[in-house]
User: Fold these one by one.
Assistant:
Number 1:
Amino acid sequence: MHKLNQANALLNQIDMFRLHGLGSFTTLLVELSKDPAMIIWLDNNDNQKDAINENYGRSFLSFSRGYW
């Protein structure tokens, strides 16, 4: 699955940012965590029990501390 071939997921993510972007930061983080485009972009769909992908954790920390 090529990350940029997911047009519907990307459009839905834009809508999510429009809906929650100026609201509660906590709500934005929760919605972003559930967002299929973010899951695809961070390769979380490839997570395995014995080989956990840490991209989400690093991105979450960066985003929550304002590095994005």
Note: The radius of gyration is 13 Å.
Number 2:
Amino acid sequence: MVPGTTIRGVRWNAAAAGPWLATGARLVLGGVFVVAGALKIPDPAAAVRAVRAYRLLPEPLVAPVAFGLPVVEIAVGLALLLGVFVRTAAIAAAVLLVVFLVAVGSAWARGLQIDCGCFGTGGEVAAGKTAYPLEVFRDGALLLAALLLTRRPASRLALGGRPAVDPVAPEEYSRAR
């Protein structure tokens, strides 16, 4: 679609839609991270169980990761929701999502029967109760959103950074209506 294309009588400007799409991606990604972190905070023992279940970290690192991860998730999520340091927060989200994808993929490949612990709980589950394909799909989609925000962080309804510029020149408004 070319900027300024008319579809069924409605003028569509793809360049103007970009900041709104970035806003949607920012709000979804930020919301997921805040919720994921907030659900882990009330039950630190479950967070420790979830990290330990992956069997990837030496025992002395399990508790610090389990306690620190929710704080990092909430900080990244709030930055995205508020629209401050969007590129930095999106990069942090992308790094976390790659780590999550590697951890889930590793558990899946090794045949571990665990809940990912992404939204609290976590730990060992009964055989056949894992949701690895859904978790990989979800994290992959969120990773795509994070990568898009690292490339084009300008969005609407953001408190920080440069405002997303409306690519339609003022003289175009009179013709677009």
Note: The chain has a mean pLDDT of 86.
